[in-house]
C-alpha cells in the first residue's frame, strides 16, 4: 500500500485532494471564527451571558441588545414542532417500512424526499395565505370572542387574533421536519436483521408485537438520531418561520402571539441594520445559532454512531 | 383454559388492528400539509403562469402583466456559479473520504462535513456577507453564489463519498494490477464508473440550493430588472417569492404562487432526473 504513494503523480494528486479538502475544514473554522468576530462588538459590550440572557432588544432608542426573546422563541418553536411531528413521522416510517406494499412504500419514500425538497418559502407562502387566515377565523377569533364574553381574564393570554404567531409557525415547521425523522427511522427499521423479525413471528407474535418487541428497541438509536436531525432543521429554519411568526421583539408569552426566532430576526433586520452595533448584535445572534446547531448536530452524530455499533454488535 | 386463550388472542388482534389504524392515521397526518401546499400551489399558481411569466421582467405594483424572467435567469446564474465554486472542494473531500480511508484527516473531515450539512442555511449567508459583500462594498450575485456554494460543499462531499464507496473493489484492483498509478485509477476508472451517481448528487445539491432564500437576503439581495453582471445585485425565484408574498398587492400574490409552482416543478423535475440518472448507466 505504502509504495503506491511513492509514484510522483500520486503524491501530487493526494496533495491536491488534501488541499481542496482542507477547504471544508477551513469553511467550518471560518464560520465559527467570522461569526464570533462579527458579533464581538455586541458580545464585548454586553458580555456573552448578558447578550444571550438579555431580555431587551431595542435597536432604535435604548441601543440595548439581548437575544433571550429569540433564543426562547427558537426553543419553544422547534421543540413544539418536534413534539408535534414525532409520532406522525414515526408512523409514516413504520408504515413505509413494514406495512405498505412495495409500490406504496416507494411512493411514500418519494413523497418524503419531495417534502424535504419543497423550498421553505413555498411552505411560508401557504402559511401566509391559507393557514394563518384559517387559524384566525376558525380558531383564534371564536376563542377570543368566547373569552371576551365569559372569561375576560384570559384575554391577555390569547393575544390579538391575527393568525400570525408562535402556533402558526409551529404547525408549519412540524410538517416541514417530518421527512428528517421519518427517513432516519425508516432506515433504522430496515437495518434490523431479518432473523429478529422471523424469530418473533415464529413465536406467534402479531405484526404490531413484532414491531414493538423486536424492531423498535433495536431501531431506537436511529429514530432518536432522526429526531435530533429534525430538531437541528427546525432550529435553523428561516423563511417559513419568518413569514408567519409575526416578528415581535417581546418575550413570547402566549401561544397565539407574535414572536421571533434567532434565524427570523437575522432575516428580518439584517438589511435594515445601519449601525455597527446593531449589525454586530445580529451576527452575534448568528454566532449563538451556530453554537446551538453545533450542539444539536453533535448529539445527533453521537447517537447515530452508538446506534451503528449496537446494530453491528447484534449482527 | 382455551376460552382464556381465545380471549387473549382476540385482545391481541384488537391491539393489532388499533395500531394499524393509528399508524395509517399518523401517516396521513404526516403528509397532510405537503398535500395541501401542493394543491394550493397548483390551483393558485396555474392561473398566473403564461408565456410572459418566463419571457418578461416584473412590472411595478399596480401595472398588470409582466413576468419573472429576471428571477428565473438570476436563479440559474447564482446557483450555477455556486455549483462551480463548490464542485472542486466537495468532490475532492468526497474522493479523499472514499478512496483514502486511512487518511488522518478523514475523521475530522467527516465530522465537519456532517456538522456543516446541519448548519442553518442563513449562517452561510452571514459568512458570505462578511467574506464577500463587506470587502466588495455591496450586494452582488457573486456573493449569493458564494453563500450557495458554501451550502453545497458538505452536501457534495457526503454524496460523493457515498457513491464512490459503492464502486466495487475489483475495479480498483484491476486498474492497479495493470500497473496504473493510483491517481489514474481514480480519475479514469473509479470516477467514470460512479458517474451516474455523481451526477445525481450534483443535481440534488443544485436543486437544494435553488430553493434557498435565506442566505440570499443579504447577499444576492434581489433586483427588479434582468441583471447578467454577477457583480451587481441579482434576483432569484425564492427571493422574489418572499418579497411578493409579504407585499400587499393581489397581482403580486398570484405571481408568488406561480413562482412557487415553477420552483417546485423545477425541483421535482431535478429529483426525478436524478433518480433516473442513478438508475441507468452512461
What structural keywords apply?
heterodimer, A: 315 residues, mainly alpha, two-stranded antiparallel ribbon, 78% helix, 1% strand, flat, B: 282 residues
Any overview of this molecule?
The complex is a heterodimer of chains A (315) and B (282). Chain A contains 12 helices and 2 strands. By secondary structure, chain A is mostly helical. The longest helix of chain A is centred in the first third of the chain and has 39 residues, at 8-46. Chain B has helices at 2-48, 51-55, 69-99, 106-117, 121-136, 141-164, 169-177, 182-193, 195-210, 237-245, 250-279. The longest helix of chain B has 47 residues, at 2-48. Chain B is flat and about 75 Å long. The chains are: A mainly alpha (315), B mainly alpha (282). Chains A and B meet through α1, α3, α4, α5 and α7 of A and α1, α3, α4, α5 and α6 of B.
List the helices and strands and how they pair.
The complex is a heterodimer of chains A (315) and B (282).
Chain A: H1 8-46, H2 48-53, E1 57-58, E2 64-65, H3 68-99, H4 102-117, H5 120-150, H6 155-158, H7 166-191, H8 194-202, H9 207-236, H10 239-244, H11 262-269, H12 276-314
Antiparallel strand pairs in A: 1-2
Chain B: H1 2-48, H2 51-55, H3 69-99, H4 106-117, H5 121-136, H6 141-164, H7 169-177, H8 182-193, H9 195-210, H10 237-245, H11 250-279
